[in-house]
Amino acid sequence: xxxxxxxxxxxxxxxxxxxxxxxxxxxxxxxxxxxxxxxxxxxxxxxxxxxxxxxxxxxxxxxxxxxxxxxxxxxxxxxxxxxxxxxxxxxxxxxxxxxxxxxxxxxxxxxxxxxxxxxxxxxxxxxxxxxx
Length: 132
Prior knowledge:
By secondary structure, the chain is α+β, with helices and mostly antiparallel strands. It has a single domain (2-128), classed as Nucleoside Triphosphate Pyrophosphohydrolase (Alpha-Beta Complex), CATH 3.90.79. The protein has three helices and seven strands; from the N terminus they run E-E-E-E-H-E-E-E-H-H. It has helices spanning 45-57, 107-113, 117-128; strands at 2-12, 19-26, 31-33, 36-38, 59-74, 77-91, 101-105. Strands 1, 2, 3, 4, 5, 6 and 7 form a seven-stranded mixed sheet that branches. A hairpin with a 6-residue loop joins strand 1 (2-12) and strand 2 (19-26). The longest helix is centred in the middle third of the chain and has 13 residues, at 45-57. The N and C termini lie far apart (30 Å). The model has no long low-confidence stretch (mean pLDDT 95).
């Protein structure tokens, strides 16, 4: 079993009406998703989520409510990804080989951009909890 963790990273919309969602582009897969990654030995899922969000987006964050756990096959192996709502606290994005682009989008624009249906379900779960 591959274990991973991540978050649906959000921040208040500058207009004060709603939120913006951070999406990362991974050139290796040419997809748009929420920040996530594999647990390191001895690392908790919570620690991994905070680390991966920082590494992939440059943002420090405050984790909130647990979101649904995603379970799927990755290269024929079962994978389980634990997710949280993650409020962005600030930082600066630096492109890397793993993540070359970061977008902040309103939920109606973020939803169709997400490549995997399971990521759209996570966005819906976040919005149902009013991004807390």
